[in-house]
Design a protein that fits this description.
Elements lengths: L26 H11 L6 H64 L12 H5 L4 H27 L27
């Protein structure tokens, strides 16, 4: 049985008028309106509001904890990214240095002659393995220098009726380090 608008339905069994209908369906609003009319300590509305306050406090703590955990996750992710970038950069640097070393070794014209064993007769005359190795290096250096000097003068023949002209191309001077001279 519906009541006309604005009328409060009568509770015929108890002989009293029930509470007016709440303005909102929110349990907190209902509890607050009932608490304003009834100040008893054992009021169920007071217990609901106390529980609601404890729930809100717990949710705030949980949100704070989740926020801190999320911040730590972000820091850990950034550290992980920085570590991976550093690792990749170190690897690339290593590869570049290795490539430079390989290219330098391929272009090198150095010849290393290490000391070797010589017959006892040469050792008695003072020609140890190191002395013989140094002599070979010196002879190779002299031959290389002589070959380069001869190739420069033979590279450009003199024009008829003119003295031999100088080459306009400069070649590097022989380097004894090229043969690992001692």
């Amino acid at each position: 049985m519906a009541c006309p608008e604005g009328e409060v339905p009568q509770d015929r069994s108890a002989g009293r008028t029930p509470d007016p209908l709440p303005a909102s369906a929110d349990p907190t609003d209902i509890a607050m309106s009932r608490l304003s009319r009834d100040d008893r300590l054992d009021n169920p509305a007071r217990r609901l509001l106390t529980q609601q306050a404890a729930l809100v406090s717990g949710q705030r703590k949980l949100i704070g904890t989740e926020f801190r955990q999320r911040r730590l996750q972000l820091v850990a992710a950034r550290i992980g990214i920085a570590f991976k970038v550093t690792l990749v950069a170190a690897f690339l640097l290593f590869v570049m240095l290795l490539a430079l070393m390989i290219v330098a070794a391929m272009r090198s014209e150095r010849l290393m002659i290490e000391a070797f064993k010589v017959p006892e007769a040469l050792v008695e005359r003072g020609a140890t393995g190191e002395v013989v190795a140094n002599g070979i290096v010196d002879e190779l250096t002299r031959l290389t220098a002589a070959t380069r000097t001869d190739s420069r003068s033979a590279a450009r023949p003199a024009a008829p009726g003119r003295a031999a002209s100088r080459s306009i191309f400069r070649r590097p001077a022989p380097r004894s380090a090229r043969f690992g001279g001692c």
